[in-house]
Amino acid sequence: MRRSAFVLSLIFAAALPGLAASIQTAKPEQTGFSSERLGRIHEMVQLHTDAHDISGAVTLVARNGKVAHFEAHGLADIEARKPMSKDSLFWIMSMTKPVVGTSVLMLMEEGKLRLTDPVSKFIPEFKNMKVAVLQDPPAGAPARAPAAGTPPQFYTVPAARELTIKDLLTHVNGLNTGGPASNAEVAKIALKAGESLADYIPRLATTPLDFQPGTRWQYSATAAWDTLERVVEVITGETFDRFARERIFDPLGMKDTTFRPSPEQLSRIATQYRGANGTFTRVDTKAVWLNSPTYLSGGGGLMSSAEDYLQFGQMLANKGELNGKRLLGPKTVELMSSVFVPDTLPGRAKGRGFGLSVQVISDHVAADTPISNGSFGWDGAFGTHFWVDPKEKIVGLFMVQAAGPNRSMNPDFENAVMQALIEPADARN
Questions:
Q1: Can you tell me the distance from the alpha carbon of 193 to that of 385, in angstroms, rounded to the nearest whole number?
Q2: Cβ proximity of 410 and 379 under 8 Å
Q3: CA angle (297, 338, 335) in 5-degree steps
Q4: Which pTM was predicted?
Q5: Calpha distance 428→423 (Å, rounded)
Q6: Do the beta carbons of residue 223 and residue 208 sit within 8 Å?
Q7: Which fold has domain 112-137+150-237?
Q8: Distance of CA 270 to the CA centre of its chain
Q9: Which CATH fold would you assign to the domain 18-100+241-418?
Q10: Are 282 and 275 spatial neighbours (Cβ–Cβ below 8 Å)?
Q11: Which of 96, 177, 206, 263 has the fewest C-beta atoms under 10 angstroms from its C-beta?
């Protein structure tokens, strides 16, 4: 009996080539999943492929530190009829943010910053920021839409308090969060060729905030995260990509995660498509991405693979450690995945709080998701999605490249994973 289980494990491991040595594989039933039910993940992906939401995907599920499911679906390049591969690479966009958040928390553990520190402690230009207030039309004036191209009329008031590191990590900062006034002002200080974070971020600090810090949750797509990257650079004296490589990617064995892909890596990037009216339109992201040769985007600049990002997610699931390498202490991971922004703050969805760089499920019934309360993770603008479920000890990864992705794919993937559970997390420990 023991020999049969061992042989099955070898067979399953052989079906998952290339996985890092730090992550073991196991037959689904050995991790409390049903093999038959996990097959519904492929069915879910096929439904979205048939609907022209995606051309293909890579899906990966681990439990108790062992991979139970790892599959490539569909095509990475429709025109070339190139199948999606388990080592396909993806622009993970905002899944870069938890990497930046982890970097900041590592420095917090070392006593080099506090969450309550004002950003101006590290970047003086953030002192005395202003908040934009749109002007109301004169009393009695007829209501009419402004002419196209007319800049918004606004005035500024002093920020009630300084922006803090915590504000940046939790999207309650108002720093270029889509308000018409800040959009117009940020456009005036656009990034120039050859500029770095050191050049641009102090200039960003001269633009007005969209709201008073801490008064609402509103997504800062890049500005807050690029600013956090610059804070890391100021503290460490290193460029952020070097810090991330030395302190996160190399220790975790994340060989394919990078801001600057090599020519070989470019050849493995899954093509992005926009699906509409029953057809796919190719979108070229191999030659143009968020990173210039000198500027790295903390809001969405990383490329990664399912296997690579699993190492990062499993480190978080293990409370900060993987394969003998500890990046964060258990209490820091607990802090990271705590609800700092409740779903009662304007801007947050029901049942979905926000922690330090990650969404946190505070009420899975209100959030309409089968993943457990306390689960945390985030998405990317091209449809990538990951979460860590501490209760069920699951890491889930959904890797796709879609322009304007159908966001129903993420809950569909979560459902396909969670319905396959047939035993508690500790049943086989």
A1: 31
A2: yes
A3: 75
A4: 0.92
A5: 9
A6: no
A7: Methane Monooxygenase Hydroxylase; Chain G, domain 1 (1.20.58)
A8: 18
A9: Beta-lactamase (3.40.710)
A10: no
A11: 263
